[in-house]
Amino acid sequence: MKLKKLALGSALVLGAALTSVSSVAADKVRLATEGAWAPFNFIDSAGKPQGFDVDVAWALCAKMKADCEVVTQDWDGLIPGLKVRKFDAIIASMSITEERLKVVDFTNKYYSGGLRFLGLKGEAFNVADLKGKVIGAQRATLGAQYLEDNFADLATLKFYDNQDNVYLDLVAGRLDVVLSDELPTFDWLKTSGNGDKFEFKGDAFLKEDNIAIAVRKGDKLKDKLNKALDEILADGTYQKINAKYFPFSIY
Amino acid sequence: MDFSVVVEYFPKLMQGTWVSLQLIALSVVLGGIFALPIALARISKNPLVSGLPFAYIFFFRGTPLLVQIFLVYYGASQFEVVRESFLWPILREPFWCAIIAFTLNTSAYTAEIFRGAIQAIPVGEVEACKVVGMTKVQMYRRILLPRAFGIVLPAYGNEIILMLKGSALASTITILDLTGMARTIIARTYTPIEIFLAAGVIYLAISMVVIAIFKQVEKRQNRYLGPNPVKLPDDV
Questions:
Q1: Which candidate, A15, A65, A107, B223, has a CA 20 to 30 Å from the CA of A24?
Q2: In chain A, how many domains are there?
Q3: Residue A199 domain-assigned?
Q4: Are residues A132 and A204 in the same domain?
Q5: Helix (H) or strand (E) run with residue A156 in it
């Protein structure tokens, strides 16, 4: 008797869980971010994704009047996850590149960045002197690709799963130089307490690096997102979010 | 699916395979060397002798290998003392950090396997040694260790295969082993299925070789048991 009740109870719970999952999956827009790229996307102390990307995501959802969910996924699993429909869009400070355009579609840009070297304060720096140095970057980023294309035979390249580990190894002294996106590194120098030991080296380059939201090829969500993006740029919502993180325009 | 990427990047995958093989071979050999004294100390009836190996095995079997790798690689390097010590030239290299973590981990498991094997030797054989007047050292050298070696083989082969798969975690500390190389290739080509399938096949091939070697060694070591060493209940 007891066993029967138990079986019935668990069947009910299971049924409820299944129906709730399917009803959610039907109309919810799931946006994925990485959660390790402060200040654009990071996990706050309560375990929730926060940052510029996430704020933009919620602003776009408000304009689209869509029911949204922001999920996190490790960087190199983002595009594979989008392809297999684990989520519907990637808003994770992803640059538009030719290689990525082969597998996903991008909306219009929502900000633009550039690459910049980072190294020990006070040390002389010249791109020509990078020969034989140990250079670090996050795997599967523009920076990593730039290093592979230009320094593969000249320097020792080390690629990490996320940017936090790149910084850890720079501070530990395993890396001579880091190549990363200028804006998040600007934030790291300001907030991590390491700004007195490290500084930008040289000028930012590849400034035409456009950051956009990735969606599956041919997905109509792209047009909706573009329209919402135009709206938040026009009505000042975007500028407010920008000012929260950077004292200058990053569009 | 487009398997031309596998052909194009095959030399890179082979480079990664070579790194993986080095990692596994070195840590298995070092781990095996450390495991024997740990196992012997663990068997001791004196709690002062068996206490430390017990704690060591408890820690390394009870925590994930990934955590151990991170502790050695990212953890140790956070301390100024470590960065200025004579050990830093070794600890700054991810390869040696992985070897240290893998060796510590596999020696704990292997020690447990050795201990089990030694204790599985029938009491009668130990008594026979004592009757003919062997000293403890003679007993271990002539009878117990060779016997344990035969018993240990299946479980030990298993541990090496587990180590082979565990070695994929080296990719998390920038080592371009087979998994790390595969992930770096995928970062460029966005073909995870093709490249990971290829990497999986290479791992399978390596474990096939390990299995075959152990089968031969086992046959040789236990040849005194005859062609059918294990009697199943139906045979009786």
A1: A107
A2: 2
A3: yes
A4: yes
A5: strand A156-160
- C-alpha to C-alpha distance for A90 and A79, rounded to whole angstroms: 8
Put simply, the answer to whether A168 touches B74 (Cβ < 8 Å) is yes
Q: Which of A38, A19, A25 is nearest to A162 (CA)?
A: A38
A183 closest CA partner among A164, A207, A147: A207
Provide the residue ranges of all domains of chain B, joining segments of one domain with +.
Answer: 4-224
Domain that includes residue A191, residue range: 114-208
Residue B77 pLDDT exceeds 50? yes
Q: So what's the pLDDT on residue A8?
A: 54
Closest among A217, A146, A134, A230 to A181, alpha carbons compared: A146
Tell me the two tokens of residue B220.
């040789």
What pTM value is reported for the model?
Answer: 0.79
Of chain A residues 134-153, which have a CB less than 8 A from chain B? Answer: 136, 139-140, 144-145, 148
> What string of DSSP letters covers B85-101?
STTHHHHTSHHHHHHHH
Cα Dmax for chain B: 70
What ipTM does this complex have? 0.79
| Mean pLDDT split into 10-residue runs, chain A, 251 residues | 55 51 61 92 94 96 94 93 94 92 95 93 88 93 92 93 93 94 92 91 89 96 96 95 91 90
pLDDT digits (tens, 9 = 90+) for B5-40: 999 999 999 999 999 999 999 999 999 999 999 999
Pairing of strands A198-216, A104-120: antiparallel
Say whether residue A238 is in contact with chain B using an 8 A CB cutoff.
Answer: no
- Check whether domain B4-224 has CATH 3.40.50.2300, yes or no: no
Same-domain pairing of A220 and A237: yes
CATH of the domain at A152: 3.40.190.10
